[in-house]
Write a structure and sequence with these properties.
The chain has a two-stranded antiparallel ribbon. The mean pLDDT is 86. It has two helices and two strands. The chain is an alpha+beta fold.
């Protein structure tokens, strides 16, 4: 229904959403390249990564294991603000 009417939903804050008209969807192309195995740069097991299963946890592990630095080819990459942030009023 949303796609047919050119509508999409954006979260404004917890429990509040904006219904907007426009192009809010995209088709993600199929990945056809072969997968690569990445070996963590950590020389120890990161125990905190074994508790829970959240998006933020996976991002933290990708950072801690140097996966993000390797993928982006950027050794200067550092953590900044973390966690959920809200969009400004629009």
């Amino acid at each position: 229904m949303f796609v047919e009417n050119n509508l999409f939903i954006l979260p404004v804050k917890n429990g509040v959403y904006a219904l907007l008209k426009g192009e809010g969807y995209t088709d993600i192309p199929e990945i056809i390249t072969k997968q690569k195995i990445y070996r963590s740069k950590l020389d120890f097991r990161l125990e905190t990564s074994l508790v829970g299963n959240s998006e933020m946890q996976h991002l933290d592990f990708a950072y801690a294991s140097s996966l993000l630095r390797t993928f982006l080819n950027d050794e200067s990459l550092v953590l900044t603000i973390r966690g959920r942030k809200y969009t400004p009023k629009f």
